[in-house]
Amino acid sequence: MALNLTDDELFLIHMILIEFEDRQVGRLGTARVKGRVTEAQTIARMLEEVGPIRRKVEQARGLEPREHAALPEAVCIECGCTDRRACIDESTLLTCRWIRLDVDTGRGVCSSCRQAVNRWDKGDRA
Ligand SMILES: [Zn+2]
Ligand SMILES: [Zn+2]
Hints:
The chain is α+β, with helices and mostly antiparallel strands. It has helices at 7-33, 37-60, 117-121; strands at residues 75-76, 88-89, 94-95, 98-102, 107-110.
């Protein structure tokens, strides 16, 4: 970094960035579960932008830069649609939403694929 920041200042900036990222990751999970695709895309892009900034601060603090804190992009186990490439739910003619979603692994079942809910509920994630 070109600026001469003190360790305390860098620490504070680091904590603010981490808190911001954590909150956005939480919002992203909610937006995905509620099927708010546009909002999820906006938050995902914001996280892509803030990650490199946070890693720069970590380097400046002499820390090992952490991996991106964002959630993996969710994928439907049945049709393969994703957060960014949602399919059209034929019953509503709107973009699909998640009716099952494992936020940690990024796998789910979208509303176009209700036939897959049964196998999902039995533990199938493939
Ligand atoms: Zn699907
Ligand atoms: Zn879908």
